[in-house]
Design goal:
The protein is of the alpha+beta class. Among the domains are: 74 residues, no CATH class; 79 residues, Immunoglobulin-like, CATH 2.60.40. The strands form 2 sheets. Strands 1, 2, 5 and 8 form a 4-stranded mixed sheet that branches. A hairpin with a 5-residue loop joins strand 3 and strand 4. The longest helix is centred in the middle third of the chain and has 15 residues. The two termini are 19 Å apart. The relative contact order is 0.13. The N terminus is likely disordered.
Amino acid sequence: MGRASWGWLLSLVLFAAVSGCWAEQLEGRRGVWGWIRIGQGAVPNEWARVGLFNSSRALLKEVTTDSTGAFSLGALNAGEYLLEVTLPGFKAAQEPINVLRSEQQPLLIVLQPECDGARPVAGILDARIPPAARGEFEKAEEQLRGNRADRARRHLEKAVKLHDAYPAAWRLLAQLDLDREKLDDAEQRLKRAAEFEPGHPDALELEGMLCNRRNQPGEAAEALERSLESKAHCWRAQFELARAYLSLKSFARALPFARGALADHGGPFPEAHVLLGNILLNLKDYAGAARQFAAFLKLAPRSPSAEQARQVLQQMKAAGISVD
C-alpha cells in the first residue's frame, strides 16, 4: 500500500478511546497544580492569574483559574521555581516550589484583601450567593475530587435550588451532564448559566464540547477559539478544538492544539496521542503518527481502540514505515 493512501486509516482509531468522566481530577498529576481561594471563608475564585517564574524571575508560564478555583501549570523539569498569584483587590501571594519528583502535592493558596473591608471585584464569586448555596457548591467540589459524580450532582442541584442565579453551579452541572452524554440537559444548564454570566470562557469550552458531541465542528471551533482567548493553556479546550478542526479536515490548524493539549495536560493522556496520531496521519507524517499510536498503546493497551491501533502499526510496518 502506498503512503499516499494512508488517510483512510483515520476512521480506525478516531476518538474511540475518548471516554470517562471529564470532571477534572487533579490528584496524581505531574507538575504544579492546585486551588486558589479568597478570604477567611476560602471561597473558590476564578480569574486569578497564576504565574510561574524560574530562579532568575523570568516568567515561564501564566494561566488563570477556572470556575472552581483550580489551576494547572503542567509538567515541569526538576528545579527551583516561584509561583505568584495575583488578583485585583487582594495581596499578591508567592510560593517557592522545589520540583524534585514527577508527582507533586497540590497547592492551596488563600488570597487576602489588600485592606480591611475590601469588596470583591470582577471574577470573584458573587458575594450575594447565600452561604448555604455556596456550601453546597463546595461540597460538590469535594465529591468531585473523590470521583463521586453522583453525590456532587446532588449538592449542585441543591445549590441552584437555594440560589438560582449561580452560574458556576449551572456550568458544573452542565459538565456532569456531558460526562453522562445527557446533551439536551447540558444545553439547558448552559443556557441557565449564560442568563447570569454570558460569554464565560468555561461555558464556551463546554459549548464547544457539546457541539463536538453533536457533530457540529464548525460551531464547536468557534466557541472553543473564543474560550482559549482567555484560557490559552487549557488542555481540554485545546483537545476539543483539535477534534473540531480534524472533523473539518483542517489538519494543519488542528496540529498545534493537539500538541498543546498533550503538553499542558501534565500527565498521561492516551486520547491525545490517538488524536495527534490521526492528525499527523492526514498530514502524511507517517513516522510521527506511528510514534503517537505506539505511545497510546503503551499507556492504554486494553483500550477498546488498542487492537485497531495495533493493526494500523502493523500495516505501517509492512509498508516500510518505521514504528519504533
